[in-house]
TrEMBL record:
Membrane-spanning ranges: 264-284
Record domain Polysaccharide export protein N-terminal: where: 47-152
Lineage, broadest ranks: Bacteria, Pseudomonadati, Bacteroidota, Flavobacteriia, Flavobacteriales
KW Signal (keyword) present: yes
Protein name listed in UniProt: Polysaccharide biosynthesis/export family protein
Signal peptide: 1-18
Gene3D superfamilies: Outer membrane lipoprotein wza domain like, wza like domain
Keywords recorded for this protein, A-Z: Membrane, Signal, Transmembrane, Transmembrane helix
Superkingdom of the source species: Bacteria
Amino acid sequence: MKILKTALLMLLPFFLFSCISSKDVRYMQPNESLVINEEGLVPYNIPVYRITKNDILTLNIVTTPQGDAAQFYSALNASPPNGAQAGIAGSASMNISNQASGQGGNTTIYFNGLKVDSNGDVNIFGIGYIKAEGRTVEEMTKEIQDKVNENFVAGKSEARLNIDGITYYILGDVETIGVGGEKKAHKNTLTITEALAINGGLNRTVDRTNVVIHRKLPEGIKRAKIDLTREDVMNSPYYWVQNGDEIFLNTRSKNLNGFGKDPIQTLTTGVSLVTTALTIYLIFTKL
């Protein structure tokens, strides 16, 4: 009986310190720090993406059927795709292929896109070098459109410059292997909760209070930490995923020791440790 009481006392700390509460796993819990406007809405705090060195852009020039955009491109991209409508017969178009299995990025865009060089410029055939680093896609598009208008009748052509969607990377432990990897969203905006939901969400081993984001900026890489259990995370610019973001999912320290994933695992691990300890104790007391 004394041994049983000792065993129960040994198990008690495991349940007190290793179990995960609902507050540990619930997303965006009410918080007094949340900033809302006079209409009770959470203001958007979407950072503007600025192009950095080594980015790769896609560019299409859409013209009327009588237009000729070939002078702006190499022969590789000058021909319209098969079955193109007459209204875009003058368009220099790139077909976007799926990325190869196990490889990052898009091979078609890598070989045929506009690469931002070490000087922060892109070289557009027929136009020349244009500054890219530190500028937005909209700013570059306007300059390219102005260059195109010098060669075409105004209103008869359109420059379409894009990045290949929002590419981001999720890195976690072995428990999040289905969530991790290179991800791509062809959307204008993407929140971190949307990004995680697209990839199946987080399991209970992930520390939601300590999600680290590395963001690529023209000046360098900025590191930030966000807490997904607080609703005021919606006020953070890091709530919005940007192209090139690296999202690090940290494991709870208690899970590294085999506790806290779920009550059954906690009980099983605790009982195993106590049983082992009691067995060793009984062996030595009989010697």
